[in-house]
Write a structure and sequence with these properties.
With 340 residues, the protein is of the alpha/beta class. 37% of the residues lie in helices and 11% in strands. The chain has one domain: TIM Barrel, CATH 3.20.20.70. Strand 4, helix 6 and strand 5 form a beta-alpha-beta unit. It is globular. The two termini are 31 Å apart. Keywords: Flavoprotein, Oxidoreductase.
């Protein structure tokens, strides 16, 4: 599966640009089982990145439809990643910070219960829009401190309403989004959930408990476990000494599929993760370096990605747009400093 890669190459209003379409066209021919779009805003005010893809308006439908069509014609499944930045929304580009807690951002009040419910409905409306555009499903972004992840964190959520306090209450926002999408889009529309564990005050034990319940109730079709390193070891707490991945792969998952991302740069590492209990792997940086990573792996069982950093010219020759290359310059050790 291709991980959702925010490339910042859309038009300023969130419309998919010709650069987005070129990127998807390359990926569609590359052998992925499922291709996710970059993080797409479910509300205009939920934006975190300049030139971020949007799915909060019907004006985004033509570009999204073109993307879904190309992926389908290439033989893969498709999903839009649904995103709201929460307290990390960027005011300089029209974002409206929406913290769960009064304490998170100085001078900015926590969003009200009614505003939580409005954003929930925006996720559901965005999913319906993705379905209308012809996508096979969506992925709910619940990672990296964005709004759903933020509500899960006891450090960032000290609310007194039904969305704060106990784990059940802090998980309520995510569960209502997922259940609302299922009701609106039906049983055959795929629902993925991207979950991260590190940082933002998230508690591994709580997230495992929540995931076990979601698996047991089969609320989603797949879990996208976003790890900084797929080989990472738990350093403290109940699961100290185990791999982060094993904490989740050992759970009964019924019909739900589980995959992981995190420094998967070679055919060997991809195979190891399947042996460790993953149903699929998510390719991120390796796919930026080599668009057709899956085809390379199928052709060569010892395939390994080029060593980082690479030159801008290498990325350009591979078909990456100047906008995407500029984004990658902001990633530490990806683009060789000074390369034009």
């Amino acid at each position: 599966m291709l991980a959702p890669l925010t490339s910042q190459q859309s038009d300023y209003d969130g419309t998919a640009s010709r650069y987005d379409q070129s990127w998807i066209q390359q990926l569609a021919k590359s052998g992925y089982g499922l291709i996710q779009t970059s993080a797409a805003t479910v509300e205009a005010g939920g934006i975190a990145f300049e030139r971020q893809l949007g799915i909060h308006s019907d004006k985004h439908l033509p570009g999204l439809t073109q993307m879904a069509t190309m992926i389908r014609e290439g033989g893969g499944l498709s999903a839009v990643q649904l995103h709201h930045a929460g307290h990390r929304a960027k005011p300089s580009i029209g974002g409206i910070p929406s913290p769960a807690s009064e304490k998170t951002l100085r001078g900015i009040k926590a969003i009200t219960t009614e505003e939580v419910e409005r954003i929930r409905e925006s996720f559901i409306a965005a999913a319906k829009r993705a379905q209308l555009a012809g996508f096979d499903g969506i992925s709910v972004h619940g990672a990296f401190g964005w709004i759903l992840s933020e509500f899960l964190s006891p450090n960032l959520n000290d609310r007194k309403d039904q969305y704060g306090g106990s784990l059940e209450n802090r998980a309520r926002f995510t569960i209502e989004v997922i259940e609302g999408i299922r009701k609106a889009c039906g049983p055959n529309f795929q629902i993925g959930w991207r979950l991260s564990i590190e940082r933002y005050g998230l508690r591994l034990e709580e997230l495992r408990e929540m995931t076990a319940d979601i698996f047991n109730r089969e609320l989603i079709d797949y879990l996208d476990l976003a790890l900084w390193d797929s080989a990472q070891i738990v350093r403290e707490g109940t699961f100290q000494g185990k791999t982060m991945l094993s904490v989740f792969t050992e759970l009964p998952r019924k019909g739900v599929r589980l995959g992981a991302a995190g420094k998967i740069m070679s055919a060997q590492r991809a195979g190891e993760l399947l042996d460790e209990g993953c149903d699929f792997v998510l390719i991120a940086r390796a796919g930026i370096l080599q668009r057709d990573f899956p085809l390379q792996v199928m052709a060569n069982p010892i395939y390994d990605s080029p060593q980082l950093p690479v030159t801008a010219e290498y990325l350009r020759a591979g078909g990456l747009s100047e906008r995407f290359i500029d984004t990658m310059r902001g990633w530490q050790t990806f683009v060789k400093p000074g390369s034009l």
